[in-house]
Amino acid sequence: QEITEFRIGILGGENAQDRMNNYECMVKYTTEALGVETKLFAPADYNGVIQGLLGGTIDMAWLGASSYAATYLQDPEAVEPVLVKVNLDGSIGYHSIGFARVDSGIQSLDDMEGKVFGFGDPNSTSGYLIPSIEIPQYKDGITMDSGDYFGEVKFTGGHEQTIVAVYNGDIDGGVTWADGQGNWEDGYNSGALRRAVDAGLVDMNELQQIWISNVIPEGPVVLRSALPADVKATMTQLVDELYENDPECAYGVAAGDTLGFQPVTHATYESIVAARQSVIGN
Amino acid sequence: MLKIDALTKRFGDKTAVDAANITVDQPTMIGIIGRSGAGKSTLLRMVNRLSDATEGSITFEGEEITSLRGAARRDWQSRCAMIFQQFNLVPRMDVVSNVLHGTLNKRSTLATLFNLYPQADIHKAIEILDRLGIAEQAPKRAEALSGGQQQRVAIARALMQDPKIILADEPIASLDPMNAQVVMQSLRDIHEQDGRMVIANLHTLDTARRYCDRVIGMRDGRIVFDGTPEQLTTGVARDIYGAGSDFSEAATSTEIETLDRSAAEKAYA
Amino acid sequence: MLKIDALTKRFGDKTAVDAANITVDQPTMIGIIGRSGAGKSTLLRMVNRLSDATEGSITFEGEEITSLRGAARRDWQSRCAMIFQQFNLVPRMDVVSNVLHGTLNKRSTLATLFNLYPQADIHKAIEILDRLGIAEQAPKRAEALSGGQQQRVAIARALMQDPKIILADEPIASLDPMNAQVVMQSLRDIHEQDGRMVIANLHTLDTARRYCDRVIGMRDGRIVFDGTPEQLTTGVARDIYGAGSDFSEAATSTEIETLDRSAAEKAYA
Amino acid sequence: MSAVDINMTKQYADDLFKRKRLIAFAIPTVILVYLTYIFFAFDVSGLAARANWQNAVTLASDSWSHKIHVTRDNRSGEISYAVEGERKGEYPQGERPDWVSGEEIITIDLGAGHIVRYLPENRTEVEIPGYPLIEVQAEGRTVTSNLPADLPDWISASSRRIGITTPEGRITLTGARTEVFNYFPGWELFWFTLDSPYHGVGLGQILFGEQIDPTRSNIAGAVFDWWNNKMWRHKDVAWAICETILMAFLGTMGAAMIALPLAFLAAKRFSPIMLLRGATRRLFDFVRGVDALIWTVVLARAFGPGPLTGALAILITDTGTFGKTFSEALENVDQKQIEGVSSTGAKPLQRYRFGVIPQVVPVLLSQVLYFLESNTRSATIIGAITGGGIGLMLTQAIQTQQNWEEVAYYIVLIILMVMFMDWLSGWLRAKLIGTKD
Amino acid sequence: MSDATMTGPAQSVETIQSSYLAQVQRRRLYSGLALLVFVVLMASGFHIADDRNAGGFWDGLHQIGDYPADVLSEAWEKRTELPGLIGKYYPALIETINIAAVATLIGAVGGLFLSLLGTRGLAKWPRLIPLFRRISDVMRAVPEIVIALVLIFVLGGGPVPAMIAIAIHTAGALAKMFSEVAENADLKSVEGLASTGATWSQRMLLGVLPQVAPNYLSYTLLRFEINIRASAILGFVGAGGLGYELRNAMAWGPGRFDEAAAIFILLFGTIVFFDQVSSRYRNRLTEGQGQ
Ligand SMILES: Nc1ncnc2c1ncn2[C@@H]1O[C@H](COP(=O)(O)OP(=O)(O)OP(=O)(O)O)[C@@H](O)[C@H]1O
Ligand SMILES: Nc1ncnc2c1ncn2[C@@H]1O[C@H](COP(=O)(O)OP(=O)(O)OP(=O)(O)O)[C@@H](O)[C@H]1O
Ligand SMILES: [Mg+2]
Ligand SMILES: [Mg+2]
User: Fold this and answer.
1) Phi, psi at residue B80, to the nearest 5°?
2) Are A124 and A279 in contact (CB under 8 A)?
3) What is the 3-state secondary structure (H, E, C) of chain A?
4) Pairing of strands D142-145, A152-155
5) Ligand number, closest to the Cα atom of B32
6) C2, CA 20 to 30 Å: which among A156, B227, C131, E50?
7) Domain extent for D336
8) Average pLDDT of each block of 10 consecutive residues along chain D (437 residues)?
9) For residues B50 and E198, is the Cβ–Cβ distance under 8 A?
């Protein structure tokens, strides 16, 4: 069994332009390792990558946990998780953060009653799946149905959009992801808030945290199951050793400081799959 | 009353009207004759201010006309009605509305938009139509009328303006002899009964002779004749039309008998 | 040569051609006259097999025509050229291409689809155009030509088929008298010089009289007259046209002098 | 006319005008009512409140200017200079902008007397004319300053972060770092990034001057560096534009080629079998009704992201549109020409070729060319969904909400691209059909 | 050449033959070349697109039905819920239609003014004709998505940015079509009105609009049809309405495919419905003209 090209999908939404550039070293290594042409694809949203993996038009991608669950639920045979990113402190998780404007007077979810609440992308783990399960557990009477506890529940389309929407006052509160380490004023050490601060998009003085989730496992790097075994092995090894061989490249691929990747299996994500199934139903 | 002084109009190189001088002291019915391209239409259009003069001036009752702009110009146009060869009505609208267009200058656009004409105006329009003998046509669309009827609607529109001067640019050129007669008679009546000045471009000598008090002849943009119909001899006419001795007056005639004769002649030619 | 036997065509209830019998022994120039709706076009269309006969038969040199199908029918059509009142050319193509359409039946489909004609055919087409006096128009688009020229292109297309019979359905009806004369003369020449049979529907008596050897009169689908031009008296003509005693031959005429006369008459009317 | 008659006519005219007035009032009233409904349904009043004009200003000024960041990392004390604060725009080691001076004390001159000084031990001084000197000290996570309690609206301050916005530039101070943004007009690094030897070199010198990079000739090197510019990525942009045009071209032409034979099946003249005709027409209606948007979604699963998917989506929808218009054109063909050709004994194919095609070609061609232009616009949007072409680049650049100069660049390119296609299709139309038909 | 034949002495048949043959050769060469260029463009274009696509054309062809099959089978399983879902998304549909309707309305008014101001013989300021023409060219060239995305940034999400974006494009597109009609309008009645001292707006209102109204209406209806599609697709990239719901429903994937199906049905039905209605009205409008 031979392959003629190798296609890597990049989750869009967060400046895929730069990601494309960041992945260029990865393309070089892959081409060397596999001896076939390597291409990058950045579909417009999470679903684009999911569909690509399901349709067999994308061979490898770094998914979010919920996106992986979506893929798994549609076709358990389609992809297999191989690696997961390790944070600087050795953990493999992050948090979903609920936040609102300081001047809105919203201190916690209690104040959000009747207000407009914003999710990100429906396939996002921290931007939709986890908060939609954990927020109703905050206290009795909270549901995520629009017009029930919250005045309205919206999808902004992505993390960046959520942050800007809250900052602009389009919505009263929203959720996004962060590692939960470091300072709130900096937008934590990494995550969507930090990127927004770095970009000069928001002033964290004007925002405050109103909710934080339990730890969410980082999404896996997945390979399409139908790939030849040797290709899978080569690629797994390549990504696994990327940090050791070229930290600069690993920084780009992992979108931030990392200790590299470690192997992972489907078992890690079973709870997420169950969660997704319970929220969306199947 | 009306004084046209060295009025000139140039289109590029071409001088369409060349230093025309006309003085009119009292309401008169004036016919302007001349062959095609002589500058008759251009002259009338300058008087109505549909086009600007290149040089010279027009003065009406002491008021300088040529320099009017914007609202003042439109006000002058409302006092100086114009009738066209092709009637220039709004064909898809009914006759009364077309007549009421004569009052547009007095109405705001908004009022026009909502058809807010005072009832008095509507009644007046119908009375004018009645005077011209076409009151029955009032509710019809203009395009449904015969040429002669349409021209009378145009005259009605002119009367609706209650103008001091009526300009008519070959008002009967697209009409058959029967209708031509009706239309010319209407203009003459208006002149006589209301005492309005009428200036009509005519392309036939006999019409000018028959209906006008004064005839002006133009050739190549210049006024080459200005006098009473009696002074308009065949020699003068030859001069105006720039024709040789083969010039036959009948060729420019539209009177009913003359026409038939000439058509028959042409058919045999 | 050509034998038409009890040929009938019905459209629903309407019998357009009613048991027509015509026998032609040698190449003749035949004119068919009759008023509008008499069935002239329908008859010719059946002969060319553009439409099917309801009953009866057509035989040409012993061959039964009415029953031909598919390729055999097309082969017959290629031997029996047709000229139409509206020329029926392809207006966006050049004149020579239009003439070359006369060879479509003989050439392979594939080559013609790409406009690939043998050089000999192209030369012949231009020679035919020259014979008809319009060789200079060869490279122009058909739509750029005058009506008379277009009809001559249609004749050229017919000649290109090298046909035994030329059918012409009111070939001069949309032409002015000058062009009508040129076109009829061309058809006559073709008949005389090439010895081809020509059958032409004509809507005027005098054309039929002047150019044809034999005239057939139709009325309401039936053949009511078949004879020489001399036999075609005014009485017979009245009968064919179903006209009363007010029938004047000039009314159907297109000859140049007659026309002028009638126009003059009309002008006096 | 008698007095009675004329009064009747007057009465009639009055009624006529009443009716006309009613209509004249009714139409605007209906529209007004509808717009009022929309005003509330779209929450336009709320919109005015929600609209963020600051964003509009940022967008407008960013789209024609760039900023240079001078950043001090308060932990390491390291100072970096970068265009737009991006890694790709960093000044090479040892270089810095000429409005920055000093070694121990870094003085940043923002112009018009606005001066920022990075002092040792994470202290910062900001000098703004007409305002007392601002002194800030960063310690660990907090910042302390001499700012009074009531602040002008261009300063925001808390114990953790201070932000100062002036017309000359922006300053943010947090415990972790101190940053100054200095704004300049123009698109910096549009030609060459800072690491290229050709940066800041005039055109004349590149063309005629002596060799700058010993390994490459000036022109080849300059073109290469420009083409591979990391900030503006001209190569990717060019490819994206080509991809977009390609989608439109393949989609439109493919659709025309498929629709033409099918249109014969749908035209009454040429397709005597009612059932077949009806089926073809319903097929056209179906693919057109489903719309490119949904086709894009359906096809993305089968073909994955990329220009082919977009092209196929356009192709399928337009097959329906073309099928409909082509078959209408075919039904309006002039029978005379067909008959003329048939009368010579032409075979069926020849009849279509000479009797039908010459008549319909101008209509079809102008349709196709018109769609080529409008599909270029569609391809921009479809690309944003399927992941291909300039549309994706634009949407993503907008999503980052900071690279407005890139957004402006893409917008200009897209407009030029569409205008070019408009011109091209008009030119082709004139060439192939003749200017006016 | 045609000049020569007109004026010069009659040419001999031979020269005509040879010059015609030369012309035919040339034409064959040109059309052959054009065909070749076209075929090469199509083939290489397809090849490039295929190459730059994630999945190949031939590999993907057999799974073209996968996604619809997934959606339809799930929708079929839950068919009893479909009517309820259609009801649930009905407001989104109304929003999409409203966006299209308002945009068409505003765009048509804008297009009307641009066309009148940019048409020779009608323009209020004849010297500014090129300016208004360029304005409408640019408005026509800007894809809706560009304006919509920028406006979403400034105004926040919702229907208004999409509405403005579509209205701007509509104004440009209609201005072009309108001015083609207006160019052929009969100016006699305009002049007649001018001679009575009517203002520009009165001349346009009474002299031009009655003439061009049927064509303008017909074009506006056609545009409405197009705008419904545009508004749906803009929803997909961030503005509100049915497109937004469709994108979310699709993102959820299995489990909510019944929702996707309901939205598909709504969208399809709406497009077909307005398409049919508007084409019937358009035919009637332009027919009335012939009489
Ligand atoms: N808009 C224009 N641009 C250029 N030349 C013009 C224009 N209008 C008129 N002319 C020229 O001015 C000359 C006078 O034209 P005008 O229409 O006044 O003649 P006329 O006496 O009314 O003739 P007719 O009997 O044909 O109406 C003509 O030579 C005409 O070609
Ligand atoms: N396709 C058709 N379907 C129904 N009736 C037809 C058809 N073609 C001709 N007819 C009828 O057959 C009759 C004869 O028509 P035909 O065209 O042969 O007359 P014609 O003598 O050529 O008249 P014209 O001088 O008007 O061309 C007419 O009454 C016509 O209405
Ligand atoms: Mg004149
Ligand atoms: Mg006939």
Assistant:
1) -130, 90
2) no
3) CCCCEEEEECCCCCCHHHHHHHCHHHHHHHHHHHCCEEEEECCCCHHHHHHHHHHCCCCEEECCHHHHHHHHHHCCCCEEEEEEECCCCCCCEEEEEEEEEHHHCCCCHHHHCCCEEEECCCCCHHHHHHHHHHHHHHCCCCCCCCCCCCCEEEECCCHHHHHHHHHHCCCCEEEEEECCCCCCCCCCCCEHHHHHHHCCCCCHHHEEEEEECCCEECCEEEEECCCCHHHHHHHHHHHHCHHHHCHHHHHHHCCCCCCCEEECCHHHHHHHHHHHHHHHCC
4) unpaired
5) 1
6) C131
7) 234-432
8) 77 88 90 92 80 76 81 80 75 80 84 84 85 83 81 80 83 82 79 75 75 77 80 85 93 93 87 87 88 85 88 93 90 87 87 88 88 90 84 81 80 90 88 60
9) no
Query: For residue D209, is it within any domain?
Result: no
Report which of B56, B48, B116 is spatially closest to residue B84, judged by C-alpha positions. B48
For E74-287, CATH number?
A: 1.10.3720.10
Ligand nearest to the CA of B36: 1
**ipTM computed for the complex:** 0.80
Domains held by chain C: number: 1
Clarify whether residues D362 and D426 are in a common domain. yes
Pair D25, D109 in one domain: no
- The pLDDT score that the predictor gives to residue B258 is 45
- Asked whether residue A62 carries a pLDDT value surpassing 50, the answer given is yes
User: Does residue C267 sit at the B interface (CB-CB below 8 Å)?
Assistant: yes
Look at residue C184 and tell me if it is in a domain. Answer: yes
D85 in the same domain as D29:
no
**Ligand 3: centre distance to CA A17 (Å):** 68
Inter-chain touch B135–D17, beta carbons under 8 Å: no
- Same domain flag for D146 and D239: no
Q: Which ligand is nearest to the CA of B40?
A: 1
Domain count, chain D: 3
| C153 inside domain | no
Looking at beta carbons, which residues of chain C come within 8 Å of D362? 92
- The response to whether residue C4 sits with its C-beta less than 6 Å from ligand 2 reads no
Domain residue ranges in chain E? 2-48, 74-287
On whether both D13 and D70 belong to a single domain, the answer is no
pLDDT (tens digit per residue) in E120-162: 888 888 899 999 999 998 898 888 888 888 888 788 777 888 9
Q: How far apart are CA B114 and CA A263, in angstroms?
A: 78
Smallest CA-to-CA distance from D356 within C154, C93, C42, C171 is with C93
Distance CA B27, CA A215 (A): 101
Report the nearest atom of ligand 2 relative to the CA of C12.
4
* Structural domain contains residue C102: no
Q: Do B264 and C260 make contact, defined as CB atoms within 8 angstroms? A: no
**Whether residue D317 sits in one domain with residue D416:** yes
Residues ≥6 apart with Cβ < 8 Å to A271: none
Q: Which residues pair with A263 in a beta bridge?
A: A83
* Residue E33, min C-alpha distance to chain C (Å): 14
- Domain membership of residue D386 (yes or no) is yes
Closest alpha carbon within chain B to E192: B88
Residues on chain E touching A44 (C-beta within 8 angstroms)? 237
Same domain, D255 and D397: yes
Domain assignment of residue B244, given as a range: 2-86+164-268
CATH of the domain at D260: 1.10.3720.10
For residue D85, list chain A residues with Cβ-Cβ distance below 8 A: 198-200
Give the gap in angstroms from C-alpha A170 to the nearest C-alpha of chain E. Answer: 6
Minimal Cβ distance to E232: which of D285, D293, D300:
D293
Which residues are within 8 A (CB) of C92 and not within 5 positions of it... i.e. 6 or more apart?
C141, C142, C143, D358, D359, D361, D362
Q: How far is D391 from chain E (nearest CA, A)?
A: 8
We report the CATH number of the domain holding residue C242 as 3.40.50.300
Is D339 found in the same domain as D263?
A: yes
Calculate what percentage of chain C has a pLDDT beyond 70.
Answer: 90
